[in-house]
Design brief:
Elements: H1 11-21, H2 26-40, H3 50-56, H4 79-99, H5 101-111, H6 114-118, H7 122-131, E1 135-136, E2 145-146, H8 155-164, H9 171-191, H10 202-218, H11 224-237, H12 244-260, H13 300-311, H14 314-318, H15 321-328, H16 332-345
Antiparallel strand pairs: 1-2
Length: 346
């Protein structure tokens, strides 16, 4: 909120009042909440801000002590570590909520309620229904598979999704639908305090995945404008979609088509093969040597996809949670969640 000022707010007094607001009978709690609201309102805060305000300032901390085995960042089997790490992550989410209150309020106002933000849309339900016959439940500690696949939709799953809505046949149309799912994903992530979970239904997630492949390499570019859109999409994905061979084929085909329209065939063509063919599997070094800056990862889903991509590389498999988190612009806990899921599926 604009005009927030903590410099003159008596946080010690606010913490004591809030402690009363969370215990005692209903009448005592109501009185304490009224006192807390009156105390923070002159400083630009609302009653809803109080828990996050106190948490970010360290007033609600009750840090656990390390167990006999000690306390290390990587010792996820240490109960003391798990509790402390959870506390630290909640602090980050509280700070994020404080800094992004306007974004959260805008999303909630647009949908009408928090429940409405996360309610499965009619099209999500339809996509989930048509892929259900392909689901195979995973065993204990394992994720479900869909027609034998974990992340990407198989040919048969794609055909089922197309029975609900045909696949777009132009790159701009595919981009428009892809951005719809990205927006829904980000709205839910904002409402969930930037926790960066997987917010789309399985069918919708498969739809978005396949749309990415259509844009990246499958739909034929009609003109240079389509090629530019495709290349920008690949750059923005920072490695998730990077089929450079398709870009080369687009340009060669369009160049030949352009030359075929010229009255003078002696004007000359650029030979289609100039050196080694471009492929999407060329190695350009470890993930830390990528040229595209992390700022391109401007949505939660892209950042999560980047985490998956890094962890699947030999270099990424040896990196610490903090190193991968720093590269993808996420929290170490997000990396830990993605890594755990990948290990279960291995």
């Amino acid at each position: 909120m604009a005009g927030q000022d903590k410099s003159k707010l008596n946080l010690d007094r606010l913490a004591k009042i809030w402690a009363l607001a969370e215990q005692g009978d209903a009448e005592e709690q109501a009185a304490a909440r009224n006192r807390a609201e009156a105390l923070v309102k002159p400083h630009g805060y609302t009653l809803a801000d109080v828990p996050d305000l106190l948490l970010t300032e360290g007033y609600l901390d009750d840090e656990p002590k390390p167990s006999v085995g000690g306390f290390t960042f990587y010792d996820m089997s240490n109960p003391a570590h798990q509790r402390a790490y959870a506390k630290a992550e909640e602090k980050k989410r509280a700070a994020w909520r404080m800094a992004n209150r306007a974004k959260i309020d805008e999303v909630l106002a647009r949908y009408g309620s928090e429940k409405a933000v996360f309610a499965a849309t009619a099209v999500e339900q339809a996509y989930d229904a048509v892929i259900e016959p392909f689901r195979k439940a995973g065993g204990p500690g394992k994720c479900d598979t869909w027609d034998g696949e974990h992340f990407s939709p198989s040919v048969r799953v794609r055909a089922a999704l197309a029975s609900v809505k045909p696949w777009p046949d132009t790159i701009p149309d595919a981009i428009a639908e892809y951005e719809y799912w990205e927006k829904l994903y980000d709205d839910r992530n904002i409402a969930d305090s930037n926790s960066q979970h997987n917010y789309l239904s399985q069918g919708a997630d498969f739809r978005r995945w396949a749309l990415g492949d259509l844009i990246d390499k499958e739909i034929e570019a009609r003109n240079i404008s389509d090629v530019i859109i495709r290349l920008r999409f690949q750059e923005a994905s920072q490695g998730t979609h990077n089929d450079s061979a398709t870009i080369l084929r687009d340009l060669e085909r369009l160049h030949v088509a352009e030359n075929s329209q010229r009255p003078d065939p002696a004007s000359g063509d650029i030979p289609p093969d100039r050196g080694s063919p471009a492929t999407s599997t060329e190695s350009h070094g470890g993930p830390e040597n990528r040229a595209t800056p992390p700022s391109i990862l401007n949505t939660a889903s892209k950042r999560r996809a980047e985490v998956e991509r890094i962890l699947k590389t030999p270099e990424g498999a040896r990196m610490s949670l903090r190193q991968v988190a720093r590269m993808a612009g996420v929290s170490p806990s997000t990396v830990m969640k993605v890594r755990s899921c990948l290990l279960r599926q291995a």
